[in-house]
Design a protein that fits this description.
Order of helices and strands: EEEHEHEEEHEHEHEHEHHHEHH
CATH superfamily: NADP-dependent oxidoreductase domain
Number of domains: 1
CATH architecture: Alpha-Beta Barrel
Strand content: 5-15%
CATH class: Alpha Beta
Shape: globular
Number of strands: 12
Distance between the termini: 25 Å
Largest sheet: 8 strands, parallel, barrel
Amino acid sequence: MSDTRPFGDTGMNITPLGFGTWVFGGSGWQYSWGATDDADSIAAIQHAVGAGINWIDTAPAYGVGHAEELVGRALADIPAAERPYLVTKTGLIWAEGDDRSGPPRRIMRPDVVRNEIEDSLRRLRADQIDLYLVHWPDTGAVFVYGADGEANDRATPLQEYWQVMADLKKEGKVRAIGLSNHDAAQLEVAESIAHVDVIQPPFSMINRSAAADIEWARNNGTGVIAYSPLQSGLLTGTFSEERLRNLSDEDWRGSHPDFTTGLSANLALVEALRPIATRHGVTVAEVALAWATAWPGVTGAIVGARTAAQIDGWLGASDLVLAADDLAAIESAIIATGAGTGPARA
């Protein structure tokens, strides 16, 4: 694992790659990746930490607390000085008694946030959370992945929920606070109340729509951790139409546009990455990750894996430096295939 990078103005330094735990939520909830084995999940977390990754990203929404519990279990026997930074979130809520196979709601009421952080601390077996993020803007509405949606009269205003986050930081419950899935205009509003320490946007070769938000962060001393830098598996070099057909019925990817109407263009982009990967002696996934973490303003990227073995397929991205001709070839491939949205080059 390569050297760490300053994490905005937080005083923390993080590795370019962090370990994500969305997949560890298991079965029986909306946006599940299908069944997982808890022993494999714990082994993967421990392998990532042992390999030098110094931050773990999770959320109570992942398996309705299950992923957080697994992180807590995985880190329990690691000496405090060797434990990674903990990143978790708040704001996607299933009301008591709701069918967990249906969607949660975006809720950032102050009382809900305060209950959520206590639950997260308990599940993570931690006294403090290093980075606490608002998962999505509060609309009060049912959550639909990848869609902003209209706020209703139950929505908590950004100014109100961001003040609660700032209060949690002052109280020492969290070390740093941030916003995930908020645009530059929303970030500007939040910054007028309390500094936005970190943002967490989706960002990959396929989804480049957060480029303006990353530029805002770069100009405001704000750290950036990109999620889905491998576009939920599309940029690993191992995804195919056959694999799509074999996805579990529970796997949310089976009905997402990236895997349906956009699949041909996305797979064409992957094929264009193979010569670059071969030239450097790395995997396609490592090329995709090196591209994302080289984007100006990006501090690090969150990468998931079901097993410890899968981690070894992308760890080398931390030390991969793409040359100018590599970046030019990728830019040309993005334009030629029409894959995704957003600028092809910073």
